[in-house]
Amino acid sequence: MEHNNINAMWKDGEWLAHRYDASTDTFQLRYVNRPMHNAATFATDEYLGIEQNPVVVARRDARDLVEQTDKLHFILHSAFCASTMLANAFDLPGVSMGLKEPVVLNDVVGFRRRGGAPAAVAELLGDALAMLARPFGQDQAVIAKPSNIFNALAPAALTMRPNSKAILLYAPLPVFLLSVARKGLWCRLWCRELLEGQIRDGMVNLGFDMSDFFRQSDLQVAAVGWLAQQKLFSLIAQKFGPERIATLDSEALTANPGKALQAAAMHFGISDHGAANEAHPAFSTHSKFGGSFRAEDRRAEYDLAHKAHGDEIEKVLVWAQAVADSADIALTLEHQLRF
Question: Chain centroid to CA 285: how far?
Fold first, then answer.
């Protein structure tokens, strides 16, 4: 698509604010229409392909020229909880569009972790969110599902966008640990990387010394990361209240996805959600790999994982419950989405 009309881009959500370059204080835009979003597991270079000629715009220009809207809402998640499926289901033409893990928000996280001053981080975050809030055509809403490394910034995002709402989506701890175990070595390593980032973000206040993590098994480390996110989610739910925050667990979502989607759309204030039902193709397609994938397929995968790893998981669950009790962390969140 030609990009000679820069003025039109400021209002068009199809021109995704893809990256932020701190060295030049610029956003990089690339054209990603609805079918391209749907075809990509996430809105990353790995799935979209490398954009050789992004449109580079100064952040100060974006701040001055992008129209501020109240159309942005969030799916915040703790991983392995069908969050990609739910984001895909918000592909409702004329109603809403789901953005799956836009990298520009990861760039904000990186800016913060490299030592960006709090005021500068807040300003950048506000500008990035304004870019992502640009709707697709006449859509009523944009539903952003950031990577879960963004969670530490979620309270700031919700504070600076008082009309935005969020769904806090999580897998119950036994299901989360089953997912980690069945996905193998790469996922166990990812959990350690996630915990490292959470520690840097100041999220892990569970009574451990740094040396303790070296003596924990992979699944214990995974449980610590889950508990840290659960504690943060609980604080978010308490701070912003049920008018803005609804919580949802993966088992409730996958058991009745059509009704969950309708309830989520109502929570976000989307008035015309007739297409938000169990017939949405997101609910019968594997969100990561494509192809047919039904709820019974998911259950079969977890049954196999439990046979292979059940003993280890049961031991870690007993340990994690003791940690949760000590840190006053509820394993079930309040303000549950009703459907």
Answer: 19
Tens-place pLDDT, residues 293-304: 566 766 777 788
Phi, psi of 11 (to 5 degrees): -105, 0
Give, to the nearest 10 degrees, the angle between helix 185-200 and helix 218-240.
50
Give the DSSP letter string of 74-122. Answer: EEEE-SSSSHHHHHHHT-BTTTEEEEES-HHHHHHHHHHHTT--HHHHH
Q: Once rounded to an integer, what is the mean pLDDT over residues 65-90?
A: 93
Tell me how far apart the alpha carbons of residues 307 and 289 are, in angstroms, rounded to a whole number.
24
Model-level pTM? 0.91
Kindly compute the dihedral angle of the four CA atoms of residues 284, 287, 289, 293, in this order, to the nearest 10 degrees. Answer: -20
Q: Which two tokens stand for residue 178?
A: 């089953």
Residue-averaged pLDDT of the chain: 91
- Domains annotated for the chain, with CATH where assigned, are 6-327 (3.40.50)
What's the pLDDT tens digit per position in 155-177? Answer: 999 999 999 999 999 999 999 99
The residues near 93 (Cβ < 8 Å, ≥ 6 apart) are 34, 137, 139
